[in-house]
Design brief:
This protein has 412 residues and is mainly beta. It has a domain of 246 residues. It has a 13-stranded parallel sheet with strand order 38-35-28-25-22-19-16-13-10-7-4-3-39, with helices on one face. β3, α1 and β4 form a beta-alpha-beta unit. The longest helix has 10 residues.
Length: 412
């Protein structure tokens, strides 16, 4: 058995199981026939899925973007992928679409165990949203998105990331950079293109560990997050680097349902992380005015306070900006910014009325909770090294992709 970085297996005896068509019943039958390591091949066609379940460590392979087209309609959990302990699961070569159903659960759901199951990989797919959100990711890590394209309108979130099951993610030491030794503790979003989704591409919520790198955002709200305020735990940590944030048409004034009202590229509401080597075009236009490219908030000291009454609130608010955990206790670990280029304005301050009348500087100080307020220049976070790029499960010829199938099974 060959291994990549001592971890990812090759299935030398992989079989290709051919689904008769792209219909849900034919694809589900092919999945039932397949075993771990097999390729389930889905032919070209236009089909609707309403309740497909992928609960095996196989590669679900479409005939390519624009060829195998799957419509989720307005359904919830139309396609569920469950992480498996027996091996990696991959979904490749599809065009997926949804419409008019911005509800939970979203159309495509990924769940399962955080640490005792292997990653799920979405590679070389297209996702199109029209008045809907596409993904619910309910595990803290172990999901990889690479070389996909996402298109949506103003409030069409591509990725809702929220794990309410593995709450020990917050009390487990961080897996930023090479602390994720095997590449399966974090959610990796790399080399994707996001068009629109101007109110936010992704929402990092309870216990999620996210790496957002080498992506292109075009009129996109980019990275949104939650702290421990309106959510029980909030985002665990984040790494945002080598992305391009573009705002190519700032002087148009279309309706709110379209793409131009981008309020920020990055909105931080809790936890710690690194933000470096990103390129940001200026968020300014005649319609919406001048917006900060990066926004900082601490709602836990405003209207939704985990510590209790105003008199009970003190620094640090649990899981607030610049907080980490070493496996024993929370501690102050500042957010580092460096090497970002373009227009970088940071907007920090109260956003929910500040009913307690607090001073923002009591809860957030540069040099303590964040390093380098300009976001440019600056020095890297001491001891931090980014994880291997591209992710070992993503390449033009990964081990599983390069092994020819030994047997082909056609379902009649």
């Amino acid at each position: 058995m060959l291994l990549v970085l001592g971890y990812f297996p090759s299935y030398a005896s992989a079989t290709t199981v051919n689904a008769t068509s792209c219909s849900q019943i034919d694809v589900q039958n092919a999945i039932r026939t397949a075993i771990t390591g097999d390729v389930v091949s889905v032919p070209a066609g236009n089909c609707a899925w309403t309740s497909l379940i992928l609960q095996k460590a196989v590669t679900l392979q479409g005939a390519g973007i624009g060829n195998t087209n799957i419509d989720f309609g307005s359904g919830a959990k139309s396609f569920e992928v469950i992480k498996q302990s027996t091996g990696v699961t991959k979904i490749k070569g599809f065009s997926f679409s949804c419409n008019n159903a911005n509800i939970h659960p979203h159309a495509l759901v990924v769940d399962g165990s955080w640490l005792s199951a292997e990653p799920v990989v979405f590679q070389n797919n297209n996702f199109s949203m029209n008045g809907c959100a596409m993904f619910d990711i309910t595990v803290a890590g172990g999901v990889i998105f690479s070389r996909n394209s996402f298109t949506g309108l103003w409030n069409d979130f591509a990725l809702a990331l929220k794990d309410t099951v593995d709450t020990n993610s917050w009390t487990t030491a961080d897996s930023m950079g090479t602390n994720d030794a095997n590449g399966k503790k974090n959610i990796y979003i790399e080399d994707n293109t996001f068009n629109g989704q101007s109110n936010g591409v992704l929402d990092c919520d309870d216990n999620i560990r996210v790496v957002l790198r080498y992506n292109t955002f075009i009129e996109s709200g980019g990275y949104n997050s939650h702290g421990r305020d309106s959510s029980p735990d909030g985002c665990r940590h984040f790494e945002i680097y080598n992305n391009s944030f573009r705002y190519p048409d700032p002087n148009t004034c279309p309706s709110m349902s379209s793409l131009s009202n981008v309020n920020q590229y990055i909105w931080l509401r809790g936890a710690t992380g690194v933000i470096f080597n990103n390129s940001m075009e200026n968020l300014i236009g005649q319609c919406w005015g001048d917006k900060p490219e990066i926004k900082l908030s601490i709602r836990g000291a405003e209207d939704d306070r985990p510590q209790g009454t105003c008199a009970q609130v003190s620094y640090p608010v649990p899981h607030q900006l610049g907080q980490n955990n070493n496996g024993i206790r929370d501690f102050t670990d500042p957010i580092y910014f460096w090497g970002n280029t373009g227009s970088i304005a940071m907007g920090g301050g109260w956003g929910w009325g500040n009913p307690c009348g607090f001073n923002w500087n009591t809860f957030f100080q540069w040099g303590r909770d964040g390093i380098n307020p300009s976001g440019a220049g600056g020095n890297p976070k001491p001891g931090y090294t980014s994880y291997t790029y591209p992710h070992p499960l993503i390449s033009d010829a990964t081990l599983t992709d390069s092994v020819p199938p030994a047997v082909t099974i056609s379902l009649q």
